[in-house]
Amino acid sequence: MELENRLGQSKSQYLREASQQPVRWQTYSDEVFRIATELDRPILLDIGAVWCHWCHVMDNESYLDRAVADLINKNFVPVKVDRDQMPDVDARYQAAVGAITGTGGWPLTVFLTPDGKAFYGGTYFPKEDAQGRPGLLTMLPQIAQTYHSRKSEVRQSAEDLFLQLREHERHNVQAGTIGTEIVDGIVKDAESKMDRQFGGFGRTPKFFNATILQLLLEEAPKAKNAEIDEFLKLTLDNIMRGGVYDHIGGGFHRYSVDRYWHVPHFEKMLYDNALMLKVYLKASELIDTPSYSNVARQTSNWIVGPMKSPEGPFYAHQDADVGPHDDGSYWTWTNGELESALTDDEKKAAVLHFDIRETPGDIAEMPDRNVLRIALPDDDIGKSLSKSTEEVRELIASSKRKLLEIRDRKTPPFIDKIIFADRNGLAISALVEASLQLNVREYYRAAEEAADFILEHMVDKSGRVAHAFADSSSAYQGLLDDQVFFGISLLDLFDVMRSDSHIAAAEKIAGVLLDEFEDKDGGGFFDRSADDKGEGYLSSKRKPVDDTPTPSGNSCAAVFFDRLYSVTENKEYFEVAQRTLEASAGSAGRLGLYGANYARALNLHLALRKILK
Predict the structure, then answer these.
(1) Pairing, β 268-269 against β 468-470
(2) Closest Cα partner for 84 from 182, 176, 14, 4?
(3) From CA 377, how far away is CA 389, in angstroms rounded?
(4) Quick one: DSSP state of residue 518?
(5) 522, 530 contact by CB (below 8 A)
(6) CA 480, 481, 485: angle at the middle one, nearest 5?
(7) What is the Cα–Cα distance from 571 to 230, expressed in whole angstroms?
(8) Is the pLDDT of residue 143 over 90?
């Protein structure tokens, strides 16, 4: 059987980009396992995304190389997966590689038996051995030879790992009694991981962990804990001032590679921005500073600007780079670029404001490019330049306008035009909140347009929400997150306009969740329909309860049903939320800060239970 590269007709831009590679890539399907069994070859599974810098590096460095491709084509059945289109596939194989190596991420490179069980893997592998990492030219023949010479041993090891992970999934979600002590435990765990010097959690890399920030902001007025209040302000100020925030165009990059929130990975994700928009909206209610409202406004403008499709819904992400050998040039600036763009006074103010240097060394590959961050307060700049604070602010504002005009004339990093229901749900909810708090009607209209598109094009007659929409059709079956994130967004829209159509659509989604996704025996919800069959790791059931980094599907399901009960007064919905929370109450405390949205859902439910009593 002679394989051919089959990615050319994919709805995924990431996969289509690989259609010209000499590797004979297959798409992930049950047929792949039949082919691998027939050929008696292991599967090389590559999971990545169009926004992933190191995925592009590996594609260009290795998979375009004829020698690497020949080794793969001769010895493996190669399969390429877009993790955004198939997050359920990605989640399962991330767990497998995590169990094998202790690490995960993208690109994910996994070697499977013909029936889809993982026996070896990692993330990025270079073409040749480098810096202590084995290269593909070395690894591929060794793995193929090991598979064929020790086939029964390899298959048994892969089967053992599969069973171990399946058992882990069963024990990872344990039932228990719900109570406020779970919330207290999650908050205490977060306190133990706080970086009290620079904000955030842990050291490097620094992710936003938006759900725990939301929980702490909600708990702060009740707790009256000065240390948490101080930590929240430190974190929000440093994120807002750091290079991880786009000071020219608004919005947040994906994460910081350093502890200080200075140098980011430059891709921008819709889900990060929706979640952080909610964080800054909440913070602006509690902390007396206009800066947080400004961040919320600029982030909202980015979502309804470049991320909004002409048809209404929002695109999922924007790339970090403009080419395979680039590393953030679109987002960064040289001293010379500022010199030529700004007046003398603007340049002086901008240099102090953003700490512009000739050779900042922010990015190793481009040492002359500055990642913009706020280095000095406006009044300090005024003293240095003998100008008033207001004059400095005007100079900074005019500098930003000019820099944005220049940047807008450049070729921007790619924005994938695919529409994902789960991420749109998060964005719709955030924009509804922004419209109310910032008093900007445009944000609500944009949210409503996105919801209308999804209802028309991505929701079937039963009420089930599809995961993706591309090339005028749905691209992948709907998952738990698609149902609950979009369902909650309909309730947010209803809260403003009181439209019966939004409630009717939400109740249909509720019916789909109960009929297709609920674990009838143990409570809670599976990430895929309980009746969906799948080969390989898709044959195992998952009940997501931890935030990674979006809120967990089960905690959002509890929120969805509790809020639906509040609107309809149908007590069955309250009971669904109760058993969903109870299904993982015994293990929720172990999630620590990754159980933040569970804690938020639990707070809502306990408040409703008090009213019922």
Answers:
(1) unpaired
(2) 14
(3) 9
(4) B
(5) no
(6) 125
(7) 40
(8) yes
Quick check: 549 and 604 in contact, CB under 8 A?
no
pLDDT tops 80 at residue 473? no
Alpha helices in 242-358 (DSSP H): 270-286, 290-304, 335-341, 344-354
Residue 43 DSSP code = E
Could you give the CA distance from residue 17 to residue 525 in angstroms, rounded to a whole number?
35
Pair of tokens at residue 48: 């990545």
Domains of the chain, start order: 13-172 (3.40.30.10), 180-324+416-612 (1.50.10.10), 329-409 (no CATH)
Helix/strand/coil (H, E, C) string of 194-231?
ECCCCCCECCCCECCCHHHHHHHHHHHHHHCCHHHHHH
Q: How far apart are CA 81 and CA 26, in angstroms?
A: 9
Q: Does residue 474 register a pLDDT over 80?
A: no
Q: How far apart are CA 399 and CA 417, in angstroms?
A: 31
Sheet containing strand 77-82, edge to edge, reads: 77-82, 43-48, 108-112, 118-122
pLDDT tens, residue by residue, 518-548: 999 999 999 999 888 777 889 889 999 999 8
Question: What pLDDT shows up at residue 229?
Answer: 93
Place of tokens 């955004």: 84
Q: What is the predicted pLDDT for the residue at 557?
A: 98
Taking CB atoms within 8 Å and a gap of at least 24, the contacts of 225-231 are 227/191, 228/191, 231/194, 231/196, 231/199
Tokens of 105: 């991420």
State the pLDDT at residue 133.
84
Give the distance, in angstroms, between the CA of residue 351 and the centroid of all CA atoms in the same chain: 33
The CA distance from 243 to 231, in Å, is: 19
Among 417, 423, 414, CA closest to 319: 414
Element (H, E) at 485: helix 480-497
- The amino acid present at 377, given as its one-letter code, is P
Q: What is the pLDDT of residues 191-225, one digit of tens each?
A: 999 999 999 999 899 999 999 999 999 998 887 88
206 CB contacts (<8 Å, ≥6 apart)? 195, 200, 244, 255, 256, 258, 259, 261
For 329-347, what is each residue's pLDDT tens digit? 999 999 999 989 999 999 9
Cα–Cα dist 440/446, whole Å: 11
Cis peptide before 107 (omega within 30 of 0): yes
- 360 preceded by cis ω (within 30°)? no
Q: What is the pLDDT of residue 120?
A: 97
* Residue 310: band (very low, low, confident or very high) from pLDDT cuts 50, 70, 90: very high
Burial label for 316, CB within 10 Å (0-12, 13-18, 19+), is buried
Using the predicted structure, report yes or no on whether residue 380 has a pLDDT greater than 80. yes
Task: Please report, to the nearest 10 degrees, the dihedral formed by the alpha carbons of residues 532, 533, 534, 537 taken in order.
Answer: 80
Rounded CA separation 117/335 (Å): 52
How far is the C-alpha of 527 from the C-alpha of 558, rounded, in Å? Answer: 14
Query: Tokens in use for 605?
Result: 């439910």
Task: Provide the b/e sequence for 48-86 (b: ≥16 CB within 10 Å).
Answer: bbbbbbebbbbbebbbbbeebbebbbebbbbbbbbbbbb
